[in-house]
Design a protein that fits this description.
Structural class: alpha/beta
Number of domains: 1
Shape: globular
Strand content: 15-25%
Radius of gyration: 19 Å
Helix content: 25-40%
Number of strands: 8
Order of helices and strands: HEEEEEEEEHH
Distance between the termini: 79 Å
Strand order of the largest sheet: 1-2-6-3-7-4-8-5
């Protein structure tokens, strides 16, 4: 009976520890380092400092990301051909900024339009076993604080006049 009581008291603590660390899914999550700071896809949405969402309508987007066919044309390229479970993991000792991909964005959250053509704020190239194009787009927007690049925003203002 004493063993059952010990197990009953330890089990909730173990479950709490798993939720607190956010390690429900084992293994690394997509992560990049930009200027010494790490940005990583969050394991659990409530852990994230930034939430992004995706739209198929370019008019609803606050940030446009184009998928390019060549790494040299991209602002951000992810290429990994290795069969390593640690691929895509950050080597930084800094605590990463966490980004979550949300299905129901708030008004202040960046909304990303991901496409293969059209005007863009960022261009990405992804050839990876660990990153999807959505992961890469979310990470580059998260690394830039969810904002458009100044050059692209200025170009849009000139085009609209």
């Amino acid at each position: 009976m004493l063993r059952f009581k010990i197990l009953a008291s330890v089990l909730p603590l173990a479950v709490t520890a798993v939720f607190a660390r956010g390690e429900l899914l084992p293994g690394p999550r997509p992560c990049i380092e930009v200027g010494g700071a790490a940005v990583q896809i969050a394991a659990l949405p409530w852990q994230a400092q930034l939430h992004v969402s995706f739209t198929d309508d370019p008019n609803l987007a606050t940030v446009r990301v184009q998928i390019t066919d060549a790494a040299e044309l991209a602002d951000f390229a992810v290429i990994d051909d290795i069969d390593d479970t640690e691929a895509g993991a950050c080597e930084s000792h800094n605590v990463p900024q966490l980004v979550a991909i949300s299905g129901s964005p708030r008004a202040a959250d960046p909304v990303i339009h991901l496409s293969h053509d059209g005007p863009s704020d960022y261009r990405i190239f992804v050839q990876s076993k660990t990153f999807s194009a959505r992961d890469a787009a979310a990470l580059i927007v998260g690394a830039r604080g969810g904002h458009r690049r100044l050059e692209a925003a200025s170009l849009d203002a000139l085009t609209l006049r």
